[in-house]
Specification:
Elements (H helix, E strand, L loop, with lengths): L5 H6 L18 H15 L6 H23 L17 H16 L4 H12 L6 H20 L61 H5 L2 H13 L9 H9 L9 H17 L3 H27 L8 H6 L31 H17 L6 E3 L4 H4 L7 E3 L2 H15 L4 H21 L17 H12 L15 H12 L3
Antiparallel strand pairs: 1-2
Helix pairs in contact: 2-3, 2-4, 2-10, 2-11, 3-4, 3-6, 3-10, 3-11, 4-5, 4-6, 9-15, 10-11, 10-13, 11-13, 11-16, 13-15, 13-16, 15-16, 17-18
Amino acid sequence: MIRFSRAALVAVGLLACLAPAHAGSTPEDEVIHWNNVLLDRFREDFGTGCPGPLARSGAIVQAAVFEAVNSIDRDWEPYIDYVDAPITASKEAAVIAAAYRTMLALFPNSTQELTSEYIARRSLIPSGPAKNQGTRVGNRAAAQILLERTGDGSETPIAYQFLPGPGNYVPSPPSFNPECNAEWGFVRPFAMERTTQFRPTMGPCGFQTMDALLASPQYAEQVNEVKAIGRRFGSGRTEEQTQIAFFWANDINGTYKPPGHLFAITQTVSRDQGLTLKENARLFALVGLAMGDAAIVAWDAKYNTAIDLWRPVVAIRRANADNNPATVQDKRWNPLNTFTPPFPAWISGHATFGAAHAAVMAEFFGTDDITFTVDSEDPFYNALPNHPPRTFTSFSQAGVENGISRIYLGVHYRMDATDGNAAGFALGRYVARNVLAQRCMADFNRDGLRDSADVDMFYSAYSSNSMSADLNEDASVDMTDLDMFMNAYLAGC
């Protein structure tokens, strides 16, 4: 069991020693490079620090990057629509422009840093028509999604009024911060059809009213579990459980926060699997869109359902008022975490984000069973005597552990993690299967139709040995490409 002195708990809050996650990393393509720029914005220009706006920013930036790259090759269905893009345009220049323009709008306090980065990265691309074309494509993709997200409900704060009485959320000690992002359950989704699409069908532990929940043996079991293993001092946690608690936290301002941690994991897996720039553009967009909607799913459940559940620290300190004889009040109980997030407990945002990310990754790679090793920049984790990188043998293993970590940290109940995981896994699968799908190969002229015009254009390109007819991208135009086109055309794709 790990014990912390109060002085140590204060000391590790200092973030000056944290190096950027990509310092000293191997060469990266522009998609990963600008994802790292985005994570720096999460660390340095985080606004309120609440997950919703950060997840929204990630979805917008990565969708714009995808739209720019995909508009040049058009291998996949667009997120909104293809922008005008010659096939000769530089994809690198398109990524740089799309990322820069969206971040400039989303992080106005970082204009100087972003502009310096933009100039530096553009200087690496040779001057010429391809660079200019790519820049125009990126600018158009950025403008398109920024316009589409205007008025999406994210800038309309709600002064939420919680119900009085036991069980209902109240600002939690020690900081007693006001509630955060009460409006987020009403933000227009990125990929979902509606905000309630993945809302848990039953309430916490299956209960629909607060009185029934608080009086149940299931509630007492959940409170007593977090009371025992989530407490700061005198806990029965194992050393590994303490590591897990802080590994996934990244709650503190100055870290890349939970959405950033999942983007960092995406980078690691991308490098391990040797993805190309085009593949990265699609993968990071799917991850970004899923996390953008995960914030909506979690905050909808937190604020827009019948039970706005108090946090464990309040439940334990006020257990004398919950009408449940199986819970015992402890007025001095504190969670392992130094603060409690300022919003209702059910469902867990970490669990929802982590599961949505895991599902997207498994769908993208066609298997859940990929082993990867990743680290954390949470300062409490890095202050532990033993804080190795963690290795996972599947994406779902990481997603589930992300949710369970919040019990060990003392800020969530098991039902928050379980129900958050269920919603997140369902959401992630939906996103990966329903957006950015492979484009019909037989639509050769990219007009959204499959007709004789496509046949004429393909045969013209094939006969002239144009590389646009190289459908299997093996750097040659041959019978394999002809067979691929005819099979796709006759199959109705």
